[in-house]
Amino acid sequence: MEKRVILLPDETATVALGAALAVACQQACVIYLYGNIGAGKTTLCRGFLRSLGYAGNVKSPTYTLVELYALTRWTVYHFDLYRLAHTNTEELELISILDYLDHSSLCLIEWPQYGKGILPIMDLSLTLEYQGTIRRAKAEAFNANGKRLLAALSLQQEPYS
């Protein structure tokens, strides 16, 4: 498993990381996004979607569970499973989540730990966290596609700790 830590000194850097990930996507993928509330997961998704040409509002799908973005080249599904921490994963089955993960789309999944046992293995995971006054993203690749995404990130890196 390959790993990197990417420093994110401000919101612009978080948006840029999302944009770099989108540019690197050459095939369908599943990206898990971990981090506390306010860590920058939805901000990263905004950068991702903007880079792919989406100009509308990007909001966290906390209450809808999923937002669909039908773009020119890709369909992007942005999931937020936070609410499932207080219920159960049956809700994922009710919305037929596996139908979204059909190997022809890009999936960004916030709070994936609440879909454990139902969600597929991710290509890449990003854990966003604060380190003092800045954020950092711990990125881990879980397969060849994830390794390609990780290699494409040319932002500032430090050894994984």
TrEMBL record:
GO terms for molecular function: ATP binding; metal ion binding; transferase activity. Pfam families: TsaE. GO terms for cellular component: cytoplasm. The keyword Transferase applies. It is found in: Cytoplasm. GO terms for biological process: tRNA threonylcarbamoyladenosine modification. PROSITE patterns: PROKAR_LIPOPROTEIN. The keyword DNA damage does not apply. Keywords: ATP-binding, Cytoplasm, Magnesium, Metal-binding, Nucleotide-binding, Transferase, tRNA processing. InterPro entries: P-loop_NTPase, T6A_TsaE. PANTHER family: TRNA THREONYLCARBAMOYLADENOSINE BIOSYNTHESIS PROTEIN TSAE. Belongs to the TsaE family. This is tRNA threonylcarbamoyladenosine biosynthesis protein TsaE. It comes from Candidatus Palibaumannia cicadellinicola. The lineage of its organism: Bacteria, Pseudomonadati, Pseudomonadota, Gammaproteobacteria, Candidatus Palibaumannia.
